[in-house]
Structure formats: structure tokens, C-alpha cells
Write a structure and sequence with these properties.
Layout (H helix, E strand, L loop, with lengths): L1 H17 L15 H15 L14 H29 L4 H10 L4 H29 L6 H24 L1
């Protein structure tokens, strides 16, 4: 009983401090849809003769820009790969050694197998090394433009070397 009274008192104090919030009666109904707003925007833009913003087309591509986009892409690809592998491990009827034996029975040859292993290791190594680079940036290290380019080249070199080393296993 005391806990219930304390909870009610706490609610009243909290509501008194926060003040009255927006209620359904205070909300303003939207008069237009997003599609109508966009149509009106483009009509005004055409009437005024304003040019379309060039956005992406005006930027000169640089190594840090390309590496940032690639880092995001490899993150998405790795997440999807792990998710698909996990679902396959749950749903497929046999254990992993069975499927590995089936791949070995294909007799693909060492060049093709090594290339496939390299291509599988490449996004993992790139995302890992670029993640280390981002951690250094979080510490405030290497944020000047020449250092950003140098660390980008270092990440690319370490990616190729570590991917090759993993493919050779």
C-alpha cells in the first residue's frame, strides 16, 4: 500500500516538473503528404529557375573518401556473410565437414582455392586494419591530411599482405 502511494506521489512530482506535455488536442494535423510537399518544392524550384545542386558530381575523389565508402561496404558485406553462414549452419542438414569434403571433391586446383581464400580474407583484413586506423583517429592521432593519406596507404598494404598470408594457410 505504501509502495503504491509512493509511486503515485513520484509520478505527480515528475509530471509537475516536466510540465504538461503535448496532448492529442494540441497536435496539429498534417495538411499535406510528403509527396505533395516534394511536388510543391520542385514546382517552386523550376519557377525560380534555380539549378539543381551538383552534390556528388562536384567532389574530386580522394583516397580517404574511397576508403570510407569501402569500409562501410565491407562492414555490411561481413555482417551479411556472417548472418548467412549462421542461418545456413542452423538450417542445413549436415555438419560443416560434410560440405568441406564436397568442395574438396570438386578438385578445383590450388590456384583457384588460394584465390578464393584471398578474396574471402580481403574484406575481413581491410575492415580490421581500417578499424584500427579509426581507433587511432578516435585517440586524436593522425588526423592531418598527409597522415590520413599515409595511414590509408598503410592500411591497403597491410590488407594485401595479411590477406595473402591468410590465403596461404
Amino acid at each position: 500500500m505504501a509502495a503504491l502511494a509512493l509511486r503515485g506521489l513520484g509520478r505527480r512530482c515528475l509530471l509537475a516538473r516536466l510540465g504538461p506535455g503535448p496532448t492529442l488536442h494540441q497536435a496539429v494535423p498534417m495538411g499535406t503528404t510528403a509527396r505533395e510537399e516534394m511536388r510543391r518544392f520542385w514546382e517552386r524550384n523550376e519557377r525560380s529557375g534555380r539549378p539543381l545542386s551538383p552534390h556528388v558530381s562536384i567532389y574530386k575523389w580522394s583516397l580517404p573518401m574511397a576508403m570510407s565508402i569501402t569500409h562501410r561496404g565491407t562492414g555490411v558485406a561481413l555482417s551479411l556473410g556472417v548472418s548467412l553462414f549462421s542461418v545456413a549452419a542452423l538450417l542445413l542438414p549436415e555438419q560443416f565437414p560434410h560440405y568441406l569434403a564436397q568442395v574438396r571433391a570438386l578438385s578445383l586446383g590450388p590456384t583457384l582455392v588460394c584465390s578464393a581464400k584471398f578474396l574471402l580474407a580481403l574484406p575481413l583484413c581491410y575492415h580490421t586494419w581500417n578499424g584500427v586506423r579509426h581507433l587511432a583517429w578516435d585517440l586524436g592521432k593522425g588526423l592531418k591530411l598527409p597522415q590520413v593519406t599515409q595511414s590509408g596507404l598503410l592500411v591497403l598494404a597491410l590488407t594485401v599482405l595479411s590477406s595473402a598470408a591468410l590465403a596461404a594457410l
